[in-house]
Amino acid sequence: MLTTILEDPLYLQFAFAGCIALAILTLPLKDIISVGFYDISDFFVTGMIAFFITYGILLTNRSIVSIWLFAGIFFVSMIIIMLMNILVILPFKNRAENSSITSIYELEGKEAKVSIPITLNGTGEVIVSTGFTRVNKMAKIYDNTDGITDIPKNENVLIMDISDNILYVLPYTNSIKTIGKPMPTWNKKQKK
Questions:
Q1: How many whole angstroms separate alpha carbon 27 and alpha carbon 40?
Q2: Paired strand residues for 128
Q3: CA angle at residue 44 from 40 to 50, to 5 degrees?
Q4: How are beta strands 118-119 and 111-116 bridged, if at all?
């Protein structure tokens, strides 16, 4: 059957189109049916490449086309796809971010705003701006010696610690933001 497909350009075109369709249809099965760095979609992409190259060779020289040539092209393209998966795709995939933040522990030391008031023994919620997004996280009051009993809504807080996916915060005033235009002290006008 494979020799019949390899000898007719029309059948090669159908095999090429079939491999494209199967590669697209098997994308959801990519993580389920895989062997190491090679999965079911890659198998059909390899077939597509092999049929395409064999079609090009068939148009130029009919006598060269054989099952062995097709198998050789298939295995060479399979090795190239595996190397591309190992050397290019997997390193970038590992560095890619799946969400707006890479780790909750990177929030430590960041400034946040209270969205649900936090009481001494209760849990509230804060909004943390990370890059272009905002993340809502549960928050409690950090152990302190200042005697803070509650933190009202819209209060700025500083994330002091993170434990069990709960942010421990303290009220915080960013001194750079609070500095407005300072009043000059050397030329005060006396108001009557």
A1: 8
A2: 112, 135
A3: 140
A4: unpaired
Could you give the CA distance from residue 95 to residue 161 in angstroms, rounded to a whole number? 26
**pLDDT, averaged in runs of 10, over the chain (192 residues):** 81 89 86 78 90 87 83 93 86 63 76 91 88 84 81 91 90 66 57 48
State the burial class of residue 116 (Cβ atoms within 10 Å of its Cβ: 0-12, 13-18, 19+).
Answer: middle
- Residue 156 pairs in a beta bridge with 113
How far is it, in rounded angstroms, from Cα 123 to Cα 140? 5
* Rounded distance between C-alpha atoms, residue 118 and residue 139, angstroms: 7
Q: How many CA atoms lie within 13 A of 172 on its CB side?
A: 20
Q: What are 111's strand-pairing partners?
A: 158
Beta carbons within 10 angstroms of residue 118's beta carbon: 27
